[in-house]
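Methods — Computational structure assignment.
A single polypeptide chain was analysed. Its primary sequence is given first, followed by the predicted tertiary structure written as structure tokens.
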Amino acid sequence: MNDPLFHLFAEAPRPVAPYSHAVEADGWVFLTGQIPNHPDDDEAPIPPGIEAQTRRTMDNLALVLDGLGLDLSHVVAARVFLTHFDEDYEAMNTVYESFFPAERRPARTCIGVTALARGVRVEIDYIARRPDPSRR
């Protein structure tokens, strides 16, 4: 087993707590949960509504994947955290599913929580897997 690699990317949103954007170990990549804060302006207001917040969160995760040289096709699992589960679940799903082809959706858990950082309505994290270079 190789030592883990700890990644922080200038292009991704500034962390709102003490964490790395991603940690990588033996081809597995664990992306820290992202929220809908703006990557270019940490002081920008959070987008209103679950659709806009989900889209911004998914775009933020894509920035981290890009920094790793990966994309959504490498995501094998996701966790979604919602503060207004009953109210937001359907609308979040509509946005979420638009990012993945139906035949390549990651395993996923969706959890209702009481609160998230900065009062946002959604946070999403990923587990990704680097392609095996021997299978190319």
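Note: The CA atoms of residues 76 and 105 lie 8 Å apart.
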